[in-house]
Amino acid sequence: MPELRLAVAGLGAIGLGVARRVAAGAIPGLRLAAVAARDAERAHKAMAGFGASASVLPLATLAEAAEVIVECLPAKHFLEVAEPAIAAGRIFMPLSVGALIDHMALVDRARVTGARILVPTGALLGLDAVRAAAEGSIREVTILTRKPPASLAGAPLIVARGLALEELREPMRIFAGTAREAIAGFPANVNVAVALALAGIGPDRTRVEVWADPSVRRNTHTVRLTSDAADLTMTIENVPSQENPRTGRITALSALTALRRLTAPLVVGS
Q1: pLDDT digits (tens, 9 = 90+) for 174-202
Q2: Which are the catalytic amino acids?
Q3: Three-state DSSP class for 104?
Q4: Which of 9, 16, 29, 45 has the most CB within a 10 Å radius?
Q5: Which domains are delineated in the chain?
Q6: What is the CA radius of gyration of the chain?
Q7: d(CA 117, CA 82)
């Protein structure tokens, strides 16, 4: 199999972890070719710090430098890398998957250009089982998210309601609604709900609850699904990354696993 070139958009907790591992040769058949970040000087220092020879490029030109583009950006910058990648027929892997549901025309465009949009599981579990159940008939899917109050600070819904989460002494449900509504209120916190929705019955039927819980130290997600094939209950407790408590350490590892599937001779799981 020919070697694939990888570009990483965004060098936060996820992007830097992915770039470092690929540059070190962790995935045979994949080479780190380029990165992009808001602070180009800092990106150059990061690349030098682990001996990577990748180019530091503007977001819009990453698709010219690589066959595979991993997006790890704030949602407001999503289209800056997504549109060129899809137009160029690349493999596009979005971590800001919540931004995708407002731009599903990219999927139609990918059918024309030959691009592929591959959404990693991220900080969730069991999407293989959800996808399998979706081949039959799913009746209901819910995801209940519990997070330390500090990890929800700054979310648009929290700001709009003027909630003082730092004063919480007991769990508080701060949102209940659909996945589409949830990602609008928490664009940096509930991308997992959108990934779940895309794997299953869509963002308008997938139900979400978000709890600020001072008793937990880890971001915790519980998924419940009922279908004609199986009923599922799954819980994951994610260890927060040191760089960003909103992000679980497993998220970068999930992206690496998704990348490994592109070149591996053996792939386990549907």
Answers
A1: 999 999 999 999 998 999 999 999 999 99
A2: 221
A3: coil
A4: 9
A5: 4-122+250-263 (3.40.50.720), 127-244 (3.30.360.10)
A6: 18
A7: 9
